[in-house]
Structures are given as structure tokens and as C-alpha cells.
Specification:
The chain is of the alpha+beta class and 255 residues long. The protein is built from seven helices and 16 strands. 22% of the residues lie in helices and 28% in strands. It binds zinc ion. Zinc ion binds next to loops. The site of zinc ion has 6 residues, from loops.
Length: 255
């Protein structure tokens, strides 16, 4: 992991020519409390003008003049952003609005795929040969649905990706220190029990890593950033830690 100002990067993904990515922190934006400062959600009470300025800064820092994002619904739908899909998207510069869904993928250059987060995982995926990148929003419901594994399989079946050469990075999110599920018997499948690190606490980073491995990725091609958002609310937005707060951006795309 490298720390280059208001966003974190994965050394693994930084090795891919043409791939641009950043797990943004809460710093470097214009929103005021409780959204201070780099909030990218306008459905949580923040001023829309501030959100658009924050989005413009994020695009500028990574060199994207177009960002794609959509309403995240804790499902497992993938929106593939290719040339035919572009005219269908609503434009709210610098944002293009995708249909509701929790995974975005593209093979186009110049478009940043943006996921909004405050404790959930952003899972970046890239196949350097097929020139396909994907950004997955994965909360615990996404983990239960194995959205990460499903996206890898869909990219392989429909878009020419080969899991054995794909790279992945999991961003700042709720760590095993803070991922408490008191109702885990109702909410989580029995297959997650081995990931219980102490009573009612679960390691969702390990769950995602193993789901990606089961989908065919190599262990050495999976980078877990390993920063807990609830433990680091000076640097990150955390829904569990703060309640009403902002949403961070995780952005990935091709130069
Ligand atoms: Zn923690």
C-alpha cells in the first residue's frame, strides 16, 4: 500500500500499465460537518454543490473527466459500461449515472468507475490483457451473495477475462476488529462461521479473499489494504462509527 495524499493505492494494481485507481479518504474535499470533507453522496443530507465539487476534485486527481456511479442497492447486479451503454446513462457532470447496481465494469479508457463507501468494501478487479476493470461494492449482504466471485465469473464468461491473470485489491473497510454481527445466526450463512475471529466478530477481508480465490484468482494477485474504517474515523467515513456521515469514493479505470 502506498499513501499518496488524499487516496490510498495498491502496489499490486499500480503495476498494471494504464490502470489508474485510488481509495479516497475523507480528506481533501469541501463538505462541512458531519460530511467533512470529501463526501460523494448526495442522498445523505449534504449540499449537492459540495458533492459535485468533491467529485470534480476526485476525477481531477486521477485524470478522469468522466466518472460513472449508480445507486447501490446491496444486490449483485453488474453494469458493464461499454460504448453502447454510454448514451443510456444520465449525465450530471462530472458524473454519469448508471442503473442501480453494485458492480461496475468497463473496457473503455478515460472513465473512472466510482463506488461510494462508509465501512463496506470496494473490490477492484483488473485483467491487464483483456483490458477490463471492475469496481465492486461489497457490504455484508454482498459477501453473503458472493458478489465478488460472481463478478469474476461474469467477466470471464462474457468479457474475455481470465481469472488466473486477474488482479484484485480490497480497500479500507470494516475490519475483523469491528465487524460485529450479533444476529449472525440469522444474517450470515454457516459457511462464514470459520471466519469468526472471536464471539460475534467476523473477518470479511478473509471472506472476500477466499471468494476471489474460489473464483480462480491467485493468492498473490489479491491485495487487502487492511485499514479499518471504524478504527480510523479521522481518516475515513464510518457508518458504524459515526451514524450520519459522508461516503468515500473508490475509483478505478483505464487511462
Ligand atoms: Zn476496527
Amino acid at each position: 500500500m502506498n499513501n499518496t495524499g488524499p487516496f490510498l493505492t495498491s502496489r499490486l494494481l499500480s503495476s498494471v500499465p494504464g490502470l489508474v485507481h485510488g481509495f479516497f479518504t475523507r480528506r481533501g474535499g469541501v463538505s462541512s460537518a458531519p460530511y467533512e470533507s470529501l463526501n460523494v453522496s448526495w442522498t445523505n443530507g449534504d449540499a449537492p454543490g459540495s458533492v459535485l465539487e468533491n467529485l470534480s476534485r476526485i476525477g481531477g486527481m486521477l485524470g478522469f473527466d468522466r466518472l460513472v456511479s449508480g445507486r447501490q442497492v446491496h444486490g449483485d447486479r453488474l453494469n458493464f459500461i461499454d460504448e453502447p451503454a454510454l448514451p443510456e446513462l444520465e449525465s450530471r457532470p462530472p458524473l454519469l449515472i448508471a442503473p442501480p447496481g453494485d458492480a461496475l465494469a468497463t473496457d473503455l479508457a478515460g472513465i473512472g468507475l466510482l463506488i461510494k463507501l462508509a465501512d463496506c468494501q470496494s473490490v477492484f478487479l483488473a485483467d491487464p490483457v483483456a483490458h477490463v476493470a471492475a469496481n465492486v461494492h461489497c457490504g455484508w449482504r454482498g459477501s453473503v451473495q458472493n458478489i465478488s466471485g460472481k463478478v469474476v465469473r461474469t467477466l470471464a464468461e462474457k468479457y474475455g477475462c481470465v481469472p488466473e491473470r486477474m488482479l484484485a485489491a480490497v480497500g479500507p473497510s470494516l475490519g475483523p476488529c469491528c465487524a460485529e454481527f450479533r444476529n449472525f445466526r440469522d444474517e450470515l450463512p454457516p459457511g462464514f462461521l470459520p471466519y469468526q475471529v472471536r464471539p460475534t466478530y467476523f473477518d470479511f477481508w478473509a471472506i472476500t479473499r477466499d471468494q476471489l480465490r474460489s473464483a480462480g484468482l491467485k493468492a498473490e494477485n489479491i491485495d487487502i489494504i487492511g485499514r479499518c474504517t471504524k478504527c480510523g474515523t479521522s481518516e475515513f467515513f464510518s457508518y458504524r462509527g459515526e451514524g450520519v456521515t459522508g461516503r468515500m469514493a473508490a475509483v478505478l479505470g483505464w487511462r
